[in-house]
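Practice problem. Given the sequence and the SMILES for pyridoxal-5'-phosphate, write out the predicted structure.
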Amino acid sequence: MVARRMGNVPESGTVKIANVVSKLKQEGVKDMISFSMGEPDFPTPDNITEACVTSLRDHFTYYTPSAGIPELRKAISDSLRSRNGIPCKDQNVLVTPTKQAIFMTMLALVDDGDEVAIPDPEWGTFDACARLAGGKINYVKLSQDDGFTLTPERLMESITKKTKVVVINTPSNPCGAVMSKSDIKGVADIAIDHDLNVISDEIYEKLVFDGEHTSISSLDGMFERTITLGGFSKTYAMTGWRLGWAVAPAHIFKELNKLQTQSITCATSFVQKAGVEAIDGPQTAVEAMKKEFKARRDLIYDLMQEIPSLNCPRPKGAFYLFPSYDKKISSEDLAAMLLEKAHVAVTPGSAFGPSGEGHIRISYATSRNDIIEGMGRIKKSLSSL
Ligand SMILES: Cc1ncc(COP(=O)(O)O)c(C=O)c1O
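Answer key:
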């Protein structure tokens, strides 16, 4: 018998569809177009790879301090202080894969029966990790009409006396919404008034095309109650390297570090060296990737306007569209139909919380040619339904 808590945890919807796609490719399906992965299609910039190879050659292959090598903790804290205005020190930085950071943060903050406010739709992992920790979910219902952005008003409608933690994610997966500074300030005021911790997932912070990114932890009174999560996967095209961070006030950092010592021990040593180069080295590749993502956003959004069945606000960041569709079919069946008939992989909206049904997630982290071909196939399939 497995533990009862496992009944609360679904398999990741996004990883599930990605696994189906790679199986079909292995089986020889050649014309597959994948809009399913939340993963830049660019190679990791060469300077970063070189830094890793050099450290391997230098035999930097042993355990590191659990919280990370000092130069990477410093690079992360310098960058968050100077660019994001977060009043952190090196000692507040825990180097760990971002997903692992979410898992550990929920374990460290949430007791049985505590409530966790989570945007709905959301990416899936916040919900699963909060439940694993014994938490109950307060869904903060987002609306397509206001660009899927989490507002203070909507947060207030969802929290109760038992709410202990609020999750925000800007820019967001799966909607590409970017919270305005005034909404972030409103959420901060609520967190202070109701004595809540905030988990702020900012992994897409460098991919904002309209508006600007604000770190909630930079606002007065917020550092002490916020865990800021970030990482290398999306900004530097480093998904397979499994490297990110959590930045937390000392009393929470201490607990996260304890969990790290008892789970993964430390992030991979030579990968951490590459992380230093990513942050401190030239940023030209990052700028070029951002420019290309913005061009793709404009292209795919224009193409979507030619598909009458699909509708969503223009995303301001990240690399996803989350359109609703007007057909009487579940999102899972629609995704299966697109995969089977059109060889186009999208993620069913049902993977992204109760409000996700009736939507599909389309990741445009793929080439312009694939975007044009894939959206053409989706258009044809939907018009025949
Ligand atoms: C919002 C969000 N946070 C965190 C992650 C996880 O990042 P990593 O793969 O670097 O652990 C993802 C990945 O898709 C994400 O979309």
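Check your answer against the key. The longest helix spans residues 284-305.
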